[in-house]
Write a structure and sequence with these properties.
This protein is mostly beta strands. Helices cover about 0% and strands about 40% of the residues. It is globular. It starts with 10 loop residues before the first strand and ends in a 7-residue tail after the last strand.
């Protein structure tokens, strides 16, 4: 839902809960209405037990963290969902705002 600086300061964290690195080439994130479609590129790798940070628009949302990937489109604050698909289009994870995201608040 953004930060105190800007509601545009959105980010997504992908967590690798396995003991091996995951190459994200060809992975996709889509929202509930398929308005948001993020296709991850060949440079994306999540280390074992690591995080992969996607920031909206620029790399200033999380000043102490360097974004791994930038995306451009806004997420809805309510009644939203994000779907993570692997390169074979197999659904791997879902995050839902039902009715709102679990953390953050619209300012």
């Amino acid at each position: 839902m953004g930060t105190v600086n800007s509601s545009n300061d959105e980010w997504i964290e992908l967590k690798n809960i396995t003991g091996s690195a995951i190459n994200l080439e060809g992975w996709q994130i889509q929202d509930k209405n398929q308005d948001v479609k993020v296709r991850l590129d060949k440079d994306g790798v999540i280390a074992a037990q690591g995080l992969f940070i996607l920031e909206r628009t620029d790399d200033t949302t999380l000043p102490a963290t360097t974004a791994d990937f930038l995306y451009k489109v806004a997420l809805n604050n309510e009644d939203e969902a994000l779907y993570l698909f692997d390169p074979s289009c197999k659904l791997r994870d879902i995050a839902q705002a039902n009715p709102k995201w679990q953390a953050g608040s619209a300012l």
